[in-house]
Write a structure and sequence with these properties.
The structure holds two protein chains of two kinds. Chain A is α/β, with parallel strands linked by helices. Chain A is built from eight helices and seven strands, in the order E-H-H-E-H-E-H-E-H-E-E-E-H-H-H. By secondary structure, chain B is an alpha/beta fold. Chain B is built from 15 helices and 19 strands. Classes of the chains: A alpha/beta, B alpha/beta. The interface between A and B is large, with 51 and 64 residues. Chain A: It catalyses: (2R,3S)-3-isopropylmalate = (2S)-2-isopropylmalate.
């Protein structure tokens, strides 16, 4: 997993609430047995019409946001299915950070396993980012170590919360399973305790 | 100190607790299916790791399986995914109910059937509807594929302790009002993300009176309220359901297990972080009109008006949903015509669900403009239904009687609702495109779906003659 700390990028404003993982990655793309290559299917049915032509009204087809690494959406992002293909698609497309007022639990957890930083900001902060970001590109700098999101245009800095464990995992790009193996004795002791 | 079942089961599974870290939680049972596991097994292979406790894993095929002819998988990518699961289970020593196995079925239906699902267990699966198993007083939740790999290698997960929420359904349900209507009403009333960060315990008289199959329907959809998991304290109903099931102990060992299970129930006076209540007598048969499970209302109601909402973003969401669904603001639900009926899914494809639907349609015929299918939740459900002649009732009424699997709930196999067409579905998600690109889904109970199949539009089952006997 690629570590993450400071990222500066234009934000992509996706002004929708309750974006479910069926929209992020549709079921027809879940049959593949690989972890990579899902980026071209991200938000497929919003990005493309039934003939496969890009939908000019959808934000991912707006050339102003082509190089963006930061996706901003409204509340309860990632609800529904547990499919990790959703963060795989987001990452493969080029986003490293998703900012929203809130996330569904499974999606939130899946992000950390893939080197994506999900950030919760206040609703008023998100509202401003979404409307300003649509009007003209807004550049943000995210600093994980300091837990801040800074707007380049207004120089406002927003603080965000993250639990220390997830923060360390992302900053270091650690493989969680290797870490857990350090607790093998405790796991074995637990198993012995439960069977006796 | 008085404790909730959530705290009791959680505490029993903590392997280690350290400052600044989530709890390392032991996982008793790991269920697997073909869609969310291949990358996890591949991860094990790449790292040279093995499955720590293969006997705590159980796999089946459900998402991709064809329901017309189980021997013909039309899509080679789907076939490869299933072959991959077979190879992975063989390589790592995991028991598998493959596509034609007598125990095959939707993973959340067969776990309870086989007695793998038991009170007090921690249960995970790479599938959000794992919450179903909470009906037994287990802590059961969906995980991503990286976590599937983590559980395969270590039999544990790092988990932050969730908050506790009580959802109390007081009073008694009216005639024709089912478990499905209760959970749809809970989600509509309290919101699609009310449960985020919480485990919900469902309590109250109306919940106590439910059968195990109905309790599974409730817990199944707790994820649609955003909950980490949903559960119900075990009682005599739970114990009676489990007795005699294959993986459940027998004789004295069963009595000992049952005593332990019952002791898990939430203590009198235990305190939850949040308590919400709903009066059962207020709940009507429900129909969703929008594009998430909270967008629903009682059958006597209508599609909302944008002006019913105060915030601009909610008004916008309503307009988008209504446009996608091809409806109009203010339209009565009973004016909505449907072209498809799907009776199936991990929410509502158990024997009692099929019985409820069959009771409505017996001696009648599916509306000429409607295509209706029944997809039993498991091969066992299918066998039992056939033993009591339910297949004949459905077929005579013009329903197609299919093989078991997830089917049209998410349309990964050939069972797809065409673009622009409308389906009355007993499944759990009405998201855009869920049942096929451009398809329109209305979530309902099995009885409501059956009544819609006959009438060709939504109808209040409380007014159907058979419900008035």
């Amino acid at each position: 997993m690629e570590p993450i700390n400071i990222i500066t990028s234009t934000l992509t404003p996706l002004d929708r609430k309750n974006v479910d993982t069926d929209q992020i990655i549709s079921k027809e793309f879940l049959k593949r047995i690989e972890r990579t290559g899902f980026g071209k299917y991200l938000f497929y049915h919003w990005r493309f019409d039934s003939k496969g032509n890009p939908n000019p009204d959808f934000v991912l087809n707006d050339p102003r946001f082509e190089e963006s690494k930061i996706l901003v959406a409204d509340e309860n992002f990632g609800c529904g299915s547990s499919r990790e293909h959703a963060p795989w698609a987001i990452l493969d497309y080029g986003f490293r950070i998703v900012i929203a007022p809130g996330f569904a639990d499974i999606f939130y957890s899946n992000c950390f396993k893939n080197g994506i930083l999900p950030i919760r900001l206040q609703q008023t902060e998100i509202d401003a980012l979404l409307s300003d970001g649509e009007e003209q590109p807004v550049e943000l700098t995210v600093n994980l170590e300091q837990q801040t999101v800074t707007r380049r245009d207004t120089e406002e800095a927003f603080a965000f919360e993250i639990d220390p464990y997830s923060k360390q995992m992302l900053l270091n790009g650690w493989d969680e399973i290797s870490l857990t193996f350090q607790y093998e004795d405790e796991i074995t002791a637990y198993e012995n305790r439960m069977t006796n | 100190m008085a404790k909730t079942i959530i705290e009791k089961v959680w505490d029993q599974h903590v392997v280690t607790q350290e400052e600044g870290k989530p709890d390392l939680l032991y996982i008793d049972l790991h269920l697997l299916h073909e869609v969310t596991s291949p990358q996890a097994f591949e991860g094990l292979r790449l790292a040279g790791r093995k499955v720590r406790r293969p006997e705590r894993c159980y796999a089946t095929m459900d998402h991709n399986v064809p329901t017309r002819n189980i021997n013909v998988v039309s899509d080679p990518t789907a076939q490869k995914q299933m072959t991959t699961l077979e190879q992975n289970c063989a390589e790592f020593g995991i028991e598998l109910a493959h596509m034609t196995h007598p125990d095959q079925g939707i993973v959340h239906i067969i776990g309870p059937e086989l007695g793998l699902t038991q009170p007090g267990r921690t249960i995970v699966c790479g599938d959000s509807h794992t919450s179903t198993h909470g009906a037994f007083g287990a802590i059961a939740f969906g995980i991503g594929t990286s976590e599937v790999e983590h559980v395969l290698s270590t039999q544990t997960l790092w988990q932050n302790r969730p908050k506790t929420m009580e959802v109390k359904i007081s009073g008694e349900l009216g005639n024709g009002v089912t478990a499905k209507d209760v959970i749809l009403a809970v989600i509509a009333k309290f919101g699609i993300d009310v449960g985020t960060g919480h485990i919900i315990e469902f309590t109250g008289e109306a919940i106590r009176n439910l059968s195990m199959e109905e309790r599974m329907t409730i817990c199944n959809m707790s994820i649609e309220a955003g909950a980490k998991a949903g559960l119900i304290s075990p009682d005599e109903t739970t114990v009676a359901y489990l007795k005699g099931r294959r993986h459940v102990p027998e004789g004295e060992a069963f009595e000992a297990a049952a005593a332990k299970w019952l002791a898990l129930a939430t203590d009198e006076g235990a305190v939850y972080d949040t308590t919400l209540t709903l009066d059962a007598s207020e709940i009507e048969p429900y129909v969703t009109w929008g594009t998430n499970p909270a967008m629903g209302t009682g059958i006597s109601g209508h599609v909302p008006f944008a002006s019913d909402y105060s915030s601009a973003s909610d008004q916008e969401a309503l307009k988008k949903a209504v446009a996608y669904m091809g409806l109009e603001e203010g339209m009565p639900l009973t004016d909505i015509s449907i072209q498809h009926v799907f009776i199936g899914s991990c929410t509502n494809a158990r024997l009692s669900d099929l019985r409820a639907a069959a009771a409505i349609i017996e001696g009648q015929h599916v509306h000429p403009t409607v295509t209706a299918i029944v997809v039993p939740g498991s091969r066992s459900v299918k066998r039992l239904a056939e033993e009591e002649g339910l297949d004949a009732v459905f077929k005579e009424a013009g329903f197609e009687w299919r093989e078991s699997g997830c089917s049209m709930c998410l349309a990964m196999n050939d069972d797809v609702v065409p673009a622009g067409e409308r389906c009355a579905s007993t499944s759990n998600r009405n998201f855009e495109g869920r049942q096929g690109a451009g398809a329109r889904t209305h979530l309902v109970s099995p009885a409501m779906a059956a009544a819609a199949a006959i009438a060709g539009r939504f109808t209040d089952i409380r007014k159907v003659p058979v419900m008035q006997d």
